[in-house]
Specification:
The protein is α/β, with parallel strands linked by helices and 439 residues long. The chain folds into 2 domains: 160 residues, Lyase, Ornithine Decarboxylase, Chain A, domain 1, CATH 2.40.37; 222 residues, TIM Barrel, CATH 3.20.20.10. Helix content is 32%, strand content 23%. It contains 13 helices and 20 strands. The strands form 3 sheets. Strands 4, 13, 14, 15, 16, 17, 18, 19 and 20 form a 9-stranded mixed beta sheet that branches. Strand 5, helix 3 and strand 6 form a beta-alpha-beta unit. Helix 8 packs parallel to helix 9. The structure holds pyridoxal-5'-phosphate. Pyridoxal-5'-phosphate binds next to helix 10.
Length: 439
């Protein structure tokens, strides 16, 4: 359990200087709460491990983990780059005033409209993911008289030790271009010959929530093999290698590994390779998402109904559920929680925290030891900062909760809670309905 910046005062849980029970009362629940200090401390650790001593390298935060205007501002102040995967994320970045040249665009099926937007904004890099994407991008660049920097996302064909739904680097994947010579090499040649793109190098992302470094090392080996072939065939040595994200975080009992555990051996492998061939060290890029924000975020709930089924299970229902945290239902993700309103009471009851949605799978935490829960208690579910808010839905027409940024006892909205009015604003009654009624 990650309890960084948490303390118990007078029986209640404080986080980054804020009394969580009071926050819940003042701002309502459910609500996502992010400590800016925890986010900044992760960014500092990443810089220490990757860019401080290697200024050519870049950290491109994967904003799919958590995205909003304020987050882009924070990234901008911290001097990071960002990885976007949709027109919506791209638009949010630009709206926040984030420098376009510091954006990279990933995604396995970017639409023409999204690519047009990226070219118009003049973003830094497009990570090409499919054989059709290059031609589409070239057409757009020709029409707009622009040239874009590109990398190719490859599927290195390595197995990462994580949940099947978040493995992305194996050969049978919807992401990336396979490494078969007859597929990838002509495609690289097309980019090298193109007037409209500048080919910089390769990208891979092997999966998420990783605690071992062997997958990274193996994938780097595959990328270097391809880079060598490109060099031998076309005389071009890659200028950039993007290693993706995926560094594991603490949700419950996992022990987060230092970033250097993943990054040092990879850098050393590439350095040794470059030195052996007398080639320049390429710039390295990483795309951490969850490791920047997961542990910084908690979700506050109020306990509503409780039910003890003798000899079977005890349930306590929160005022949200799979709508603001789909991960347990989607891939069995595990979380832990603290009863913020009685943080020092003994954890003497086993309870299952369920949501209020109309699905039996709407369980946030199965069988956790907590103090006896009563209606009105405030529950803090920890490490919910990644892929919670960004995956939230309006299922059952529950509004999406707001996001609070907290910092040394000060709490402010970064995203206001959705209202019923917001939620129904785009609903339209088809004209034909009225005609039927009038007729
Ligand atoms: C291409 C790419 N980069 C980076 C990430 C971020 O991964 P994580 O949040 O596990 O660091 C992902 C996650 O899906 C991804 O697909």
């Amino acid at each position: 359990m990650n309890t960084e910046l948490m303390e118990i005062k007078n029986g209640t849980l404080f986080y980054d200087g804020c009394d969580l029970t009071q926050l819940a009362a003042e701002f309502g629940t459910p609500v996502y709460v992010y400590s800016q200090n925890v986010i900044k401390s992760r960014i500092k650790e990443l810089k220490e491990a990757f860019t401080d001593d290697h200024p050519k390298n870049r950290i491109a935060y994967a904003c799919k983990a958590f995205c909003c205007t304020a987050m882009f501002k924070l990234l901008q102040y911290e001097g990071l780059c960002a990885d976007v995967v949709s027109g919506g994320e791209l638009y949010t970045a630009i709206k926040a005033g984030f420098p376009a040249e510091r954006l990279e665009f990933n995604g396995n099926n970017k639409s023409r409209g999204e690519l047009e937007l990226a070219v118009e904004y003049g973003i830094g890099r497009i990570i090409i993911d499919s054989l059709q994407e290059l031609s589409m991008l070239e057409e757009i660049c020709a029409a707009k008289e622009k040239k874009m920097k590109v990398l190719y996302r490859i599927t290195p064909g390595v197995k990462a030790d994580t949940h099947d739904y978040i493995i992305t680097g194996k050969k049978d994947s919807k992401f990336g271009i396979p490494l078969d010579d007859d597929i990838i090499l002509p495609y690289v040649k097309a980019a090298l010959d193109s007037r409209y793109v500048e080919f910089l190098g390769l990208h891979f992302h092997i999966g998420s929530q990783l605690f071992e470094n062997d997958g990274y090392i193996a994938a780097t080996g595959e990328a270097l093999k391809l880079a060598e072939k490109i060099y031998t065939e076309y005389g071009f040595w890659i200028k950039e290698l993007n290693l993706g994200g995926g560094f594991g975080v603490t949700y419950t009992t996992e022990e987060r590994k230092p970033f250097s555990f993943f990054l040092d051996p990879v850098r050393e492998t590439i350095e040794a390779f470059a030195m052996e061939y007398g080639l320049e060290m390429p710039a390295l890029v990483i795309e951490p998402g969850r490791s920047v924000v997961a542990e910084a975020g908690i979700t506050l709930y109020k306990i509503g109904s409780t039910k003890d089924i003798p000899g079977l299970r005890n349930y306590a229902a929160v005022d949200g559920g799979m709508t603001e945290n789909i991960r347990p239902a989607l891939y069995g993700a595990k979380y832990t929680a603290i009863v913020a309103s009685k943080a020092d009471a003994p954890a003497d009851k086993t309870v299952t925290i369920c949501g209020k949605c109309c699905e039996s799978g709407d369980i946030i935490i199965k069988d956790i030891e907590l103090p006896e829960l009563k209606t009105g208690d405030t529950l803090a579910v920890l490490s919910t900062g990644a892929y919670g808010y960004t995956m939230a839905s309006n299922y059952n027409r529950n509004p999406i909760p707001g996001v609070l940024f907290i910092d040394n006892g000060i709490a402010e909205w970064a995203v206001k809670p959705q209202t019923y009015e917001n939620m129904t604003a785009n609903d339209v009654i088809p004209k034909s309905f009225l005609e039927v009624k009038n007729g």
